[in-house]
Structures are given as C-alpha cells and as structure tokens.
Amino acid sequence: MPDISKEQVQHVADLARLEMNETETEKFTKQLGDIIHFAESLNELDTTGVPPTTHVLEIRNVMREDTVEKGLPRELVLKNAPDTQDGMIRVPTIVE
Amino acid sequence: MSLFDHKISELHEFLHNKEVKVSELVDEAYQKISETDDKVKAFLTLDEERARKTAAELDGKIGSPEAENVLFGMPIGIKDNIVTKDLRTTCASKILENFDPIYDATVMEKLHKEKTITIGKLNMDEFAMGSSTENSAFQITRNPWNLDTVPGGSSGGSAAAVAAGEVPFALGSDTGGSIRQPAAFCGVVGMKPTYGRVSRFGLVAFASSLDQIGPITRTVEDNAYLLQAISGLDRHDSTSADVEVPNYVEALKGDVKGLKIAVPKEYLGEGVSEEARQAVLNALKVLEKLGATWEEVSLPHSKYGVATYYLLASSEASSNLARFDGVRYGYRSPNATNLEELYKKTRSEGFGDEVKRRIMLGTFALSAGYYDAYYKKAQQARTLIKKDFDDVLEKYDVIIGPTTPTPAFKIGEKIEDPLTMYANDILTIPVNLAGVPGISVPCGFAGGLPLGLQIIGKHFDESTVYRVAHAFEQATDFHNQKPQL
C-alpha cells in the first residue's frame, strides 16, 4: 500500500465535511499515513473464512409494541438550536 | 480525616444514625472542590445550587423507608458525556460548549431514583477520544498523585475527582480503557461492565459497539453498589441485555479458594514495564495465598488489538459524529454563507485535532475502495480476538494482568505522537473488543504513582470479577493510600 497522498486526505476531509488548510493537510497526511501503515499489521492475519464481528451480543431484531406516544414539545426541541424563527430552525441559503 | 475516606456503606450508617446530614456530605464535596480543584481541575461544571437544595429536601426524609437505600443522599460526579437534564453537557468539546440537555440519560434516571446528588460534570478527553484528558477543549486535568502527570483518560476527571476526595464516587465511560486506565493511574477502582449490562441511552455515542458506562470508586464494595444501581435492560437501548442483574454486593462475600486464574503471557511481555510486571506477580502471590491457582496462557491476537480498535472505533465515530452539523444544537460557525460551508466551518472550528484525526481515519476506512481492506478486515480480526478470550474463559474463571504497561506519564509527553498514545491502551482495548467485563484495582506504586491490576471475567459475570477484586483489596493496603494535595 503506497503512502496516503495530500489529495486523498483532502478528499476524505471533504467526505467528512471538514475543512483543512495547507499546514493541517500536511500534518494529517503524515499522521494518517503513520496510523494506516500501523493498521496494515492486520494483513499478517489470515482471515480467510473468518466472519466479521459487528457486535458481541447475540441480539437480533429487538421488537417493541408500536404504541403512539407524545412527541417532544416544540420549545424543548428548539431549546439548543443556534438560530430559530417562527418556531423553526433557521439555516443559511440552501439553493443559490 | 475526610468524610469521603469512609466507604459508601459507612456514610450510609452515619446518615442512618443521624451523625451526619446529607447537606453535610454535599458541603464536604464543595469544600473539597474549593480546596483542591484549582490544582486538579477535574470539574467542568458544578451544580451547586440544585445540589444544596436537593440535600436540604433529603435531610427531611432521614428515617423514612426511602432513606434506607445505601445510595440515598450520596454525592456523585458525572463524566461530561452522560447527558444530564438542564445541566450543561459538553463532552469537553467546543462544539457542545453551551449544550443544555432536555432529557436525562437512563443511568441518571436510575441514580435519581436512588436519590444520589449530582455535584457536577467531570472533564474528559473530547468525545472520550484520548488516554490522558489532555484532549479536553477546556482544561487539562492533573493526577492528584503528581500534578505534573496525566490522570489518564478519557475519564480522567472522574478518576482524579475520586482520588482527590472531591466526591466519594463517579461515573465514567469506557470504549477502549477509558475507565480502567485512569482508575489505574489515579489509584482508584474502575469497572467496565459487560457490553450490554448498562444502558447507553443518553451516553453521547463514540463507538456504539464498544462504549459502556461504569463506576469509578475508592473501594470495590462502593463499585458494586453503584453498578447495581445503574445496570439492567432498558427499552431505550436495544443493545442493553435482557440478562438478570445479580446482587453484586452479596457476591463480595465469597472467597477465592479454588479459583482458576489465567495470566496471558502477552500481558507480562514486551512493552510492559518491570514495575507493572512485578506488581502483578506480587498480586498473584496474594491470591495464591487466598487459595486461588494461576497458570500462564496465551491470547495470541493481543498484539492486533490496538490496530483493530482504532479502525473500528474511528469508523463508528465518523458515523456517530456526523450529527454535529451546526443545525439543530451545539456550536454553529458564524462564518458560513451557505449550508455546505455551515457544515464544514462548524465542524472544523468546533472539533479538536484528535477528534478530527479519528473522523478522518474512520471516513477513510469506510470509503469506497478501502472498506474491505480496512473496516471488514478489522471486524474479522475482532472475531479472532474475541475467540481468544472465549477459549481462555472456558477453562478459567478470570484473566489477570496489569491495567496499563506503565504508571502515569508526564503531561505533554505523548500528546504530539498519536501512535505512542494509542499504545498505552494495549492491555485494555482487547477487553472492549471481546465485550467482557474488566476492573482495575490498585496493586502497587512505582515512583510514587499508583499501578492497577486488571481482572477480566466472562460475559455478564461481574460477580466473580468483584469477588476476586474484593478478596485482593481486603488482603492488601493499596486502596487505603491517599495522595497528598
């Protein structure tokens, strides 16, 4: 596996909705490269036919009664919103 | 002597016999905090007015049946990633600096039923990502045993506050060692329960398949009382287990005669300091004298634990932390002109470096073309690591080793090098990957700093873990040592 490139780091940052300036991109390229190299030690393991573990408990489809319950009052829902107007959350322009 | 040098059951007796009032316990907490927290910096937020008001109410109930419950009126500190209704909950992140939860975590509801009193919220590594509490956006917590060293992390505030005697006990959370490692560094008792034992509802999610809430206390008995109160199935957390919760305090009464202990050679080998190794060997001698036997075993995939963990935990984190977008709650960047910029600027200005690093690693491991090579490979490695534990625990009652390879390190020593910092969790991470319970109890000192003994049990067998921990504690004096502040 070749080193991770600055362009890859920029691409991943974009996917994660993070902004990086030139200095940060360089730092993260080096650090992520080191971490990914380290993670590649897992390639020493033969995992042919080994099932993946997503979860340690044997839990399948936890069901509950589909009962109607009251939702949260609007003022509580909006309590922590950074910007509101007329009982709604306000965001900047979405469509130019 | 401080009131909090007593066990919870003793404090309860004092209340019962009307020798001490609940308001005096609360006074003691805030008095200790005012004396020591300038140095230790464990608390991010205090809830003093409400705590004193609740204490006054509870004082009126002494003598009623409600007050017979052992946790009644006990002051407690809560890690700041557990949501507390109308009490600021920040995860030690700028992105949640002014977040005021509108509901209580299930563990908080359970504690309210027990009538504990929340003293305040405790510092941590931002979003529980770190091993030193240096990643807090607000302050660096210091180890009460030596203020130049870290308290461990990510529940560093919880462990430091208990060690400093600011509160008798606290809640932490543990994803890869975040309860046990700070408990070891601060010379207190920290339990990571079996995955599913305690509801995660209201614990701000980091890595959902690994996170567990657990108690940090001065003694094993206190720990058992607190876990008893917070355990159990919760309809709000579909990963909480429908498994009966036994009486943990009763479980302490048994002895360890005939107990079979496994000691993994990987836990005493390369990378583990001589002091930690020696402290564990001494502890095994103590347990042998009490009638237990031990044998060396192997957990052959231990060395892959850290790599597996960082891929899986970061992948889960990258998904969980997508919710912090500046729209519905938390910090919003004032510098955005459209929605795309709002997301990017809010997250870039709101998250610290370690959180960004892990979001990046996780996003990379889950991205098209890399998923099979990294994420899926790590999930398969997890299967092998879990099988190591299953195989050993089929033949032995508990697994014992050090909690950490070394005692607490210096503030600033590892913060610039993520991989060195990650290696510090090599002995705690596999326990989370396997989902089994593990406790750290004080087992020695090196250079004036505490060392922790890690006792790991079978799924949902916290009782045996507690029994061994208690027997060891009763036969030694490490838990009676207190830092001089």
UniProtKB/TrEMBL annotation, chain A:
<keyword id="KW-0808">Transferase</keyword>
<keyword id="KW-0648">Protein biosynthesis</keyword>
<dbReference type="InterPro" id="IPR003837">
    <property type="entry name" value="GatC"/>
</dbReference>
<comment type="function">
    <text>Allows the formation of correctly charged Asn-tRNA(Asn) or Gln-tRNA(Gln) through the transamidation of misacylated Asp-tRNA(Asn) or Glu-tRNA(Gln) in organisms which lack either or both of asparaginyl-tRNA or glutaminyl-tRNA synthetases. The reaction takes place in the presence of glutamine and ATP through an activated phospho-Asp-tRNA(Asn) or phospho-Glu-tRNA(Gln).</text>
</comment>
<dbReference type="GO" id="GO:0006450">
    <property type="term" value="P:regulation of translational fidelity"/>
</dbReference>
<dbReference type="GO" id="GO:0006412">
    <property type="term" value="P:translation"/>
</dbReference>
<comment type="similarity">
    <text>Belongs to the GatC family.</text>
</comment>
<dbReference type="GO" id="GO:0070681">
    <property type="term" value="P:glutaminyl-tRNAGln biosynthesis via transamidation"/>
</dbReference>
<dbReference type="InterPro" id="IPR036113">
    <property type="entry name" value="Asp/Glu-ADT_sf_sub_c"/>
</dbReference>
<keyword id="KW-0067">ATP-binding</keyword>
<dbReference type="GO" id="GO:0050567">
    <property type="term" value="F:glutaminyl-tRNA synthase (glutamine-hydrolyzing) activity"/>
</dbReference>
<dbReference type="GO" id="GO:0016740">
    <property type="term" value="F:transferase activity"/>
</dbReference>
<protein>
    <recommendedName>
        <fullName>Aspartyl/glutamyl-tRNA(Asn/Gln) amidotransferase subunit C</fullName>
        <ecNumber>6.3.5.-</ecNumber>
    </recommendedName>
</protein>
<dbReference type="Pfam" id="PF02686">
    <property type="entry name" value="GatC"/>
</dbReference>
<dbReference type="GO" id="GO:0050566">
    <property type="term" value="F:asparaginyl-tRNA synthase (glutamine-hydrolyzing) activity"/>
</dbReference>
<keyword id="KW-0436">Ligase</keyword>
<comment type="subunit">
    <text>Heterotrimer of A, B and C subunits.</text>
</comment>
<keyword id="KW-0547">Nucleotide-binding</keyword>
<dbReference type="GO" id="GO:0005524">
    <property type="term" value="F:ATP binding"/>
</dbReference>
From TrEMBL, chain B:
<keyword id="KW-0547">Nucleotide-binding</keyword>
<feature type="domain" description="Amidase">
    <location>
        <begin position="24"/>
        <end position="465"/>
    </location>
</feature>
<dbReference type="InterPro" id="IPR000120">
    <property type="entry name" value="Amidase"/>
</dbReference>
<dbReference type="InterPro" id="IPR020556">
    <property type="entry name" value="Amidase_CS"/>
</dbReference>
<dbReference type="InterPro" id="IPR004412">
    <property type="entry name" value="GatA"/>
</dbReference>
<feature type="active site" description="Charge relay system">
    <location>
        <position position="79"/>
    </location>
</feature>
<dbReference type="GO" id="GO:0005524">
    <property type="term" value="F:ATP binding"/>
</dbReference>
<dbReference type="InterPro" id="IPR036928">
    <property type="entry name" value="AS_sf"/>
</dbReference>
<protein>
    <recommendedName>
        <fullName>Glutamyl-tRNA(Gln) amidotransferase subunit A</fullName>
        <ecNumber>6.3.5.7</ecNumber>
    </recommendedName>
</protein>
<dbReference type="GO" id="GO:0030956">
    <property type="term" value="C:glutamyl-tRNA(Gln) amidotransferase complex"/>
</dbReference>
<keyword id="KW-0648">Protein biosynthesis</keyword>
<dbReference type="Pfam" id="PF01425">
    <property type="entry name" value="Amidase"/>
</dbReference>
<keyword id="KW-0067">ATP-binding</keyword>
<keyword id="KW-0436">Ligase</keyword>
<dbReference type="InterPro" id="IPR023631">
    <property type="entry name" value="Amidase_dom"/>
</dbReference>
<comment type="function">
    <text>Allows the formation of correctly charged Gln-tRNA(Gln) through the transamidation of misacylated Glu-tRNA(Gln) in organisms which lack glutaminyl-tRNA synthetase. The reaction takes place in the presence of glutamine and ATP through an activated gamma-phospho-Glu-tRNA(Gln).</text>
</comment>
<dbReference type="GO" id="GO:0006412">
    <property type="term" value="P:translation"/>
</dbReference>
<feature type="active site" description="Acyl-ester intermediate">
    <location>
        <position position="178"/>
    </location>
</feature>
<feature type="active site" description="Charge relay system">
    <location>
        <position position="154"/>
    </location>
</feature>
<comment type="subunit">
    <text>Heterotrimer of A, B and C subunits.</text>
</comment>
<dbReference type="GO" id="GO:0050567">
    <property type="term" value="F:glutaminyl-tRNA synthase (glutamine-hydrolyzing) activity"/>
</dbReference>
<comment type="similarity">
    <text>Belongs to the amidase family. GatA subfamily.</text>
</comment>
